[in-house]
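Limitations

Structures in this collection are predictions, not experimental determinations, and the ligand pose is part of the prediction. Treat each record accordingly. The example that follows, with adenosine-3',5'-cyclic-monophosphate as the small molecule, is included so readers can see exactly what is and is not provided: the inputs are given verbatim, and the output is the predicted complex.
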Amino acid sequence: MTTQRTLAIIKPDAVTKGVVGKIITRIERAALAIIAAKLVHMTLAEARGFYIVHRERPFYESLCAFMTQGPCLPMVLAGDDAIRKWRDLMGATDPAKAAAGTIRKDFAASIEANAVHGSDAPETAAFEIPYFFSSFELWPR
Ligand code: CMP
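Predicted complex:
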């Protein structure tokens, strides 16, 4: 397996709750490298652009409003099989369906306020990583 990169976001609900450190500890224990990170308070236009793939879904506007409620922490994670590893750590989108020990089971309140985001495929990561980070912000460059 070659090294993969994925975009992870610690969402505003988890930042407000003060569980950023706990989530990052899980990332480090899974041997995923954080190669970029920054706190971002998105505008509505920025959130709409990020979730453009969901624009026809009934939850789109509510999701975008939720993502602008406060700062979030986008990160780029790197490692073998990073996309699947991060999705396994996150758990199912709906915390009610998430497995025990996953981030969403432990920290998410609802399918919308679900604590974290992760790219679902290499093509998605290729859109999502440069949405937040330039090549100069990735370490090593
Ligand atoms: P995320 O992994 O960020 O990708 C898209 C987001 O849309 C998802 O997490 C949820 O926060 C949100 N989402 C997906 N399905 C629903 C739904 N049925 N109702 C509300 N929000 C949803």
